[in-house]
Amino acid sequence: MKKFLIILSVLLMPFFLQAKTVTAVGEAQINNDDIASAKLRAVARAKWAALEEAAGIRVKVETIAQDAVLVDEAIKTEVGGVIKDYKITDEGKDNDIYWVKLSAEVLPEKAKKAFSFLSKNTKIAVMLPVVLPNNEVRETNPLSEKVINDLAAQNLEVVDLASAGSELSVKTLKSAMDSGNFMEIRNIANQFLSGVMLIGKVESTATAKSGKDVGYGITLPFNVVTGRLTYRLIGEKNGQKLVLASGYVSGRGHGPTVEDAAYRMMENLSTNVSNRLISVVLEKIKGTNSKRIEVVLAGNNDLDKLLELKNELSYISWVLSVENKSEDTLVVEYPEKSIYLATAIDDLMKYEIKELDKYKIVLRGD
């Protein structure tokens, strides 16, 4: 029986590893008449477009266009063989833009793995709709706005799924919350390279109406609406997607109309909930993924230059600590993938990324 299963697996393997031929176009601006560098960036962007086509995912993020070469190198390091082969079928120059067209042999499953690798745990997708007593759905509301603003204030990149053009519906959200199957939501979040999702739903009811007799000849002068938020924080731990945290919070509000009471309920709930959610997110993101990454300033024997780099690294978001290792090497404690630290270093516009892997970044200074 075991021999039969092994033979069957070998026979089926080509179907799972079958490459898909896709055609893609990439372009890049020519700077200082450096056509060779522009062509390199254009090819990298075309290869990224080929991955999107093969995986069936359209990533809505500008970073890929800006750092296509860096992303291409990181993918080859982490997800080897995702593009089996490619050839440039056409290329040309259009004013200050260089473009290439290529045909690529892409493994779809590995392409999906590449998107998973690039998803940022420090980039969080949020959706917290409110269902009002009249069953009207408010996807954007005081609760979601406050949570999003408070997360952004913590130097997190936040994707508001309610207003980012995603295809996530409240019905899909409810189904996922009820069943615990978040696959469809994860696929949507992957479009924005978001590795962590904060999702939930507020169900509200009018628990008391204006004019209600509360006894002793007294009638209630206002309406009362009670809201109940159920939320899940979904992320990655030890390479697996799982619920990192969950909870249930309630709040209420009152007002002259049910609509006013519902709005006050959302305001009150946002005040009660936001601090709790922010602390949960920060604890889960920063507390479970810290790693030590070597940053090498190649060929350096100048202590002042290394100290300057150390100071600059200490001001990069999410860098937890920077230590000296040798005359040309620093060790950075960082809760994210090395590619994002490399991108932040690249943004300093003082260093060239010469080498990048999971635990090491080699730089060349000006």
TrEMBL record:
Keywords: Signal. InterPro entries: FlgT_N_sf. Residues 1-19 form the signal peptide. The keyword Signal applies. Gene3D superfamilies: FlgT, N-terminal domain. This is Flagellar assembly protein T N-terminal domain-containing protein. It comes from Flexistipes sinusarabici. The lineage of its organism: Bacteria, Pseudomonadati, Deferribacterota, Deferribacteres, Deferribacterales.
